[in-house]
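TOPIC: backbone geometry
CONTENTS: sequence, structure tokens:
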Amino acid sequence: MPCGRSDYHYSTSTGYANYHALQAELQRRFANGLQALVSYTWSKCLGVSSGWCNVENGTNGGAVTENYFNQSLSYGPCAFDIPQDVTLSADYGLPFGRGKKYLTHGPLAWAFGNWETNLFFIGRSGQNFQITNGSGDPAAISGTGGIGKTSVSGYDRPDVVPGQPLIPSNQSQLQWFNPAALCIIPSSPGQTVPKGALAPMCTDVLPGSFSVFGDLGLSVLRDQFFYNVDFSLSRRFRISELKSLQIRAEAFNVFNMQILGIPGADVTSGTLGVIHSIASTPRELQLGAKFVF
């Protein structure tokens, strides 16, 4: 068991999920100084929960079931669902120097010989994320008479406002999705819009002023497509039969591509749909040397 809690009264395994994928690979074995490998995965993972302990991490890891009496309402993409994923890795020894095709002798052979390049590329679909209905407990499942003595909240999803597009035509960092397309489900009768919230209150309630479960689908939104390129250049200088010196220059995210992070996803907040972070790491340069003996 990856994690545990002391306040469990009863638990049972009722969740379910499925995963299907097409995987393809293209490989060039080492020849003329070049070897390369391209891998591609087209997949789909669907389920009713992505793990309570956040072990199955993703941007939506640890998502809980909205309605415990009807799990099918929470059937949707897993938190770690990545529909498209492609990677490329390649190693190439420059054709200069002793034993190579060009510049086989002389000062230029010493200067340009024995250099090796390495390239790694990854491109994948954006990860899904879940919009929550704040920290309320609209189904009143906490405490005495509920599922446990501890507080349970954050499981509900907001409602979709009819006639409002969820994805704006000019999607940007300031509005990744349309806040006006969602409404806040009240967790108690008479609840008003929280200060600064961009979404309105929903008006749908059950008889007796009990709130309804949100009808926004599970994990229907994704962050930006992710891509990254790493590159390195290295050379080995032979000192003697048993000794050599290797120098290496590496660039991670060599093109300094900035990938947007996850937007605000709490429907009760004033940053709903706004992105304040990046998912990528800024370019990093690294120099190193290794003495082999």
